[in-house]
Amino acid sequence: MAYPRLIVDTKKIESNVSKIVALAKEEGITIAGVTKGFCAYPEIVKAFINGGVDFLADSRIENLKKIAPFDIPKMMLRLPMISQAKETVEYADISLNSELDTIYALNEVSESLGKIHKVILMVDLGDLREGYFKKEELFNAVDEILKLDNIELYGLGVNLTCYGGVIPKRHILQKLADYKNEIEKEFGIKIEMLSGGNSSTVHLLGTGNIPNEINNLRLGESIIFGTESAYGKHIDGTDCTAFQLEAEIIEIKEKPSVPTEEIGRDAFGNVPTFVDRGIRKRLICAVGKQDIDLESLYPLDKDLIILGGSSDHTIIDGSDSKIDYSVGDILAFNLHYVSMLRAMTSEYIEKIII
Q1: Which CATH superfamily is domain 10-225 in?
Q2: Most distant pair of Cα atoms in the chain: their distance
Q3: Which part of the chain is the Alanine racemase N-terminal domain (predicted)?
Q4: Residue tagged active-site, from 12, 19, 36, 118
Q5: 147: exposed, middle or buried (C-beta count within 10 Å: 0-12, 13-18, 19+)?
Q6: pLDDT < 50 positions in the chain
Q7: pTM of the full predicted structure?
Q8: Which of 74, 28, 19 is nearest to 52 (CA)?
Q9: DSSP secondary structure string, 37-103?
Q10: Annotated catalytic, 36?
Q11: For the chain, domain boundaries
Q12: Is the bond preceding residue 256 a cis peptide, omega within 30 degrees?
């Protein structure tokens, strides 16, 4: 059996998806299931579809190609590269956009392929990642898009918390709703989709604080792990253990808890700090920062303390554990979104999907 390995429980994922889809549907909100975190593995995509997502969404063309066989509308999350305009139209029904030059390129490709491509214009409401920040620029973009024969202005969208950490609140999302209403009135059109963000908006479900106009969310973390990402709170009735990492112990030694000589930069260019706990039993596992994020890795043995690691090693304090570990034993870890993202991307971790 190869280690490290990642075990993925698709039944838990499907259950999480169905619960959150049901919450959203109570407010007339559709769900775009974001597949990028697990590299669009088809078996996990099936769990999303069985759980009831309305769209599949990804930020990479490579992943959109993987999910092409599934008969469900697909969304390109990251602003398309002009160099990938053709593939964007071929593999995505909808794309998120904020640059007219890119939309012009999508229009040309769509015309050559005999397609109508749907776009969602992104609006920056303070998080300062993608989107139109100025109202006049947004309205100018709408005016230009309506002149194009092979582009449909399908919706408006916002992204929050991913860069600036701005937490979705009613007054912020109301700005998006107001833009929709103004555009519909000024241009005499209907905006089909108002996409109110990602898993950080989930904390507003059931509170009455999502404007009625919002009818879509783009969710990955919340439907995989059952946690909203604004405050990191667990969603009732969901399971956060769908992904579990197993790694082999390759060394056990009694060592000081603080290096014994002058401390400089570590392998990643940082100057580390240490807590002096005296002489401790230290375990080393054969998995490291190239494959996982130590900050979102949680040993099932609650008495273990993750001290840190390097590219290929995770160093753990095992002095307080009630288990007498030996070299060659396997440690199991629950993990959260960033660790999942790295582990699924890493070719050095075997994936077991059940």
Answers
A1: Alanine racemase (3.20.20.10)
A2: 73
A3: 8-224
A4: 36
A5: exposed
A6: none
A7: 0.91
A8: 19
A9: GGTT-HHHHHHHHHHT-SEEEES-HHHHHHTTTS-S-EEE-SPPPGGGHHHHHHH-SEEEE--HHHH
A10: yes
A11: 10-225, 243-335
A12: no
**What are the strands, taking DSSP E only, across the chain?**
5-8, 30-34, 55-58, 74-76, 94-97, 117-122, 151-157, 193-195, 216-219, 243-256, 279-285, 297-299, 305-309, 314-317, 330-335, 350-353
Residue 39: Cβ within 10 Å count: 18
Res 1: pLDDT = 73
Q: Do 7 and 243 meet the contact criterion of CB atoms below 8 Å apart?
A: yes
How far is the C-alpha of 213 from the C-alpha of 178, rounded, in Å?
Answer: 9
CATH fold of 243-335 reads: Lyase, Ornithine Decarboxylase; Chain A, domain 1 (2.40.37)
Residue 322: how many CB atoms within 10 A of its CB? 7
pLDDT at 263: 64
Half-sphere exposure of 351 (CA within 13 A, CB side): 22
Tell me the two tokens of residue 44.
């996990």
Task: State which amino acid sits at residue 330.
Answer: I
Q: What DSSP state is assigned to residue 132?
A: B
